[in-house]
Amino acid sequence: MTGQWGQKAVKEAKPYTNVHVAATGEADGSLKLPARHTWQLAPNAAYLHYTPNETIGGIAIHDIPDAGNVPLVADMSSNILSGPLDVSKFGLIYAGAQKNIGPSGIVVMIIRDDLLARPTGNIANIFKYSAQAADGSMLNTPATFSWYMAGRVFKWLQRQGGVAVMGERNRAKAARLYDYIDGSGFYSNPIEPSARSLMNVPFRAPNETLDELFVKESEAAGLLAPKGHRSVGGMRASIYNAMPMAGVEALIAFMQDFAKRNG
Q1: Is 5 a catalytic residue?
Q2: 117: Cα separation from own chain's centroid
Q3: Which of 5, 8, 155, 156 is catalytic?
Q4: What string of DSSP letters covers 60-108?
Q5: DSSP 8-state symbol, 47
Q6: What is the Cα–Cα distance from 215 to 231, expressed in whole angstroms?
Q7: Which of 11, 75, 147, 179 is catalytic?
Q8: DSSP state letter for 192
Q9: Are 157 and 227 in contact (CB under 8 A)?
Q10: pLDDT (tens digit, 9 = 90+) per residue, 127-171?
Q11: What pLDDT shows up at residue 27?
Q12: 66 catalytic, yes or no?
């Protein structure tokens, strides 16, 4: 549990099962990952759930945890398709479309065959993965516009060179922005460098008054949605697949000008 989306996953699971939190970064303010040797994994667990990328706090787990024989479940809503991924290491991957795939309203599910075959409890068919799979994801009328747009994005992604190319681009964009923040002497990023997200980069000016001024002036300059999440404040740059390096450079140019005028 490394951030707010992990907390939400725990909350949603509690009515259905006994939740065991194997590791949490809450004691450190979710600014760094709990050391792997401190993880208290339960060998008989039904699954191990984690959130590879926490959008709000900007913290990420970049390697795939070893869950042993326990099925590994991941919420990849904010980092799917951002780079190569060995899906064979997972029992289940779920991802909302609204970051790297397309409009909200559709979810991608990747499920191991043996888990798909497991019997489910007394729930409506629409919530049964096996029923959805048996009907080709058309058990009910799907969100057709979101599905159509996802198809267009997949074709665009292929034209770019696939997830390998996107991974290179995303690493380059994040490195450029983090390097500027760290060397600016004005802005700061609170996340431990080894756990920094490649998708979401939170940062702050020297004080909250300047944070508010930055948000106001950057929006006036045409930079969209620079304000950080309401629970953490500051600013946040979300640099998903569709954001080109030119967008990162435009942000840095404004940051440089703002720091010069307010330093």
Answers
A1: yes
A2: 28
A3: 5
A4: E--SPP--TTSPEEEE-TTTTTSS---GGG-SEEEEETTTTTSSSS-EE
A5: -
A6: 16
A7: 75
A8: -
A9: no
A10: 899 999 999 999 999 999 999 999 999 999 999 999 999 999 999
A11: 81
A12: no
On whether the CB atoms of residues 82 and 166 are closer than 8 A, the answer is yes
Q: How far apart are CA 144 and CA 102, in angstroms?
A: 12
Tokens encoding 37: 């040797």
Q: Which SS3 state, helix, strand or coil, does residue 188 take?
A: strand
* Both structure tokens of 82: 């951002």
Q: Quick check: 231 and 56 in contact, CB under 8 A? A: yes
Single out the catalytic residue among 86, 99, 156, 257. Answer: 99
In angstroms, how far is CA 192 from the centroid of its own chain?
17
The token pair at 120 is 């489910």
Domains belonging to the chain, first-starting first, are 4-160 (3.40.640.10), 163-262 (3.90.1150.10)
For 104-115, what is the mean pLDDT? 95
Please tell me the distance from the alpha carbon of residue 71 to that of residue 230, in angstroms, as a whole number.
34
173 an active-site residue? no
Cα Rg for the chain, rounded, in angstroms?
20
Q: What is the pLDDT of residues 63-103, one digit of tens each?
A: 999 999 999 999 999 999 999 999 999 999 999 999 999 99
SS3 56: coil
Coil, helix or strand for 255?
A: helix
Q: What whole-number distance in Å separates Cα of residue 83 and Cα of residue 169? A: 9
